[in-house]
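Quick question, first post here. What does this chain look like in 3D?
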Amino acid sequence: MAAAGGLLADAAFESVVEVADVRKRMSELEIRKLNWAADLHALDPLLDDRDRQRLPALWQCAQDDDAQVHVAEIDGRIVGRITTHYRLRSEMGWLPDADTERFQSEGNAYIETLMVQDDLRGKGIGKHLLDAAISSGVSRGITLFGLHTDEGNSGARRFYEREGWTLLHIVSPVWSNGSPMCVYARAGKSEKGSRDE
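> Answer (accepted):
Ran it through. Tokens below.
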């Protein structure tokens, strides 16, 4: 029985150390705009093949102020990213559905990608990235944000709903290869000028 107690004490100690390490790392978290020249190599682990192919077009959109990428950085390492589009651009290679078009029209913004490194999910990084994207959009006068997430991704759905996003409907857009996608929206800047009134 003493051996079992020792194992439990070791596990509890490791858990306390792990929590302390996560807290320390989170205190070093920086959310900032992507530095295209300096960050592209560090961003690579958070990109899939499609993202890599679209980087030149996304760069041009960002240069034209039609898109913005924020990154999460801990200890000089990029651990998350979010992309926000303010205007529909054909060079992005979209196969837009009505929601994607609406969310990239005047006064609206579309959250295309929110990604956090696997081992750091559930630690608040996604919330910080989402808050930064919304804050930047609100400062531009954005009144409505929208996004799609896979209907089967229950973790993402819970996250967005907890963060104040409203499920509008479920669609199966061409670009999703028939997979049902949940369409979420969230208010940005109200008529009174402040967020979420």
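The radius of gyration is 19 Å.
The mean pLDDT is 84.
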